[in-house]
Amino acid sequence: MVDTARARRLAKRIVSIVATQIQHEVKDPRLDMVTITAATVTPDLREATVYYTVYGDDDVVAAAGAGLASATGVLRSAVGAQTGIKFTPTLEFRLDAVPANAHRIDELLAAARDADARVAQQAAGARYAGDADPYKAPRTPEEIEADEIDADEIDADEIDADESDLSESDGLDHPATPGRASDPAPVPGERVP
């Protein structure tokens, strides 16, 4: 069974050892601006990938990569001596892309904030193409009076219609009253009220 907790502990230890060795033991000027950021170790503890960042332009980054490649043997020996594990993992150095990606995301967020500010500025001085709300307009006194007259006529018509409906059958099936011919036949064993 693979012990991932052990691999994580070893990865942390490798970061510490490699960073200390680069800072104090390895005398390569190409590694002056190198920062060890993280490490991962395979579950069998045989291979370790060490991530680093470099402060500088592309030439400095390339020189730092070459410096780490030349110091790999010394760094691996230090890891083996200080960890005390049976098999010292091989070290592979990779440039960490997280800071570059974070910088790119910050740039995109800043551009989005600027675009939102421009839209908000345009919206602040904007006016509707037509009325503010074309579906809602103040009613004139004539319209109010006409609506009141129409409402009175509709109410009178509805009252007359309701009275005539009471006198006529509406054709709907209403609950049957006892003794009507339209009652369904009783179910055997059921009590009839």
UniProtKB/TrEMBL annotation:
Spans annotated as Disordered: 125-193
Comp. bias regions, Acidic residues: 143-170
Compartmental location: Cytoplasm
Segments of skewed composition (Basic and acidic residues): 133-142
Any one GO cellular component localisation term in the record: cytosol
Keywords tagged on the record: Cytoplasm, Ribosome biogenesis
GO terms for biological process, alphabetical: maturation of SSU-rRNA
GO molecular function: ribosomal small subunit binding
Family: Belongs to the RbfA family.
Quaternary data: Monomer. Binds 30S ribosomal subunits, but not 50S ribosomal subunits or 70S ribosomes.
Record protein name field: Ribosome-binding factor A
Originating species: Nakamurella multipartita (strain ATCC 700099 / DSM 44233 / CIP 104796 / JCM 9543 / NBRC 105858 / Y-104)
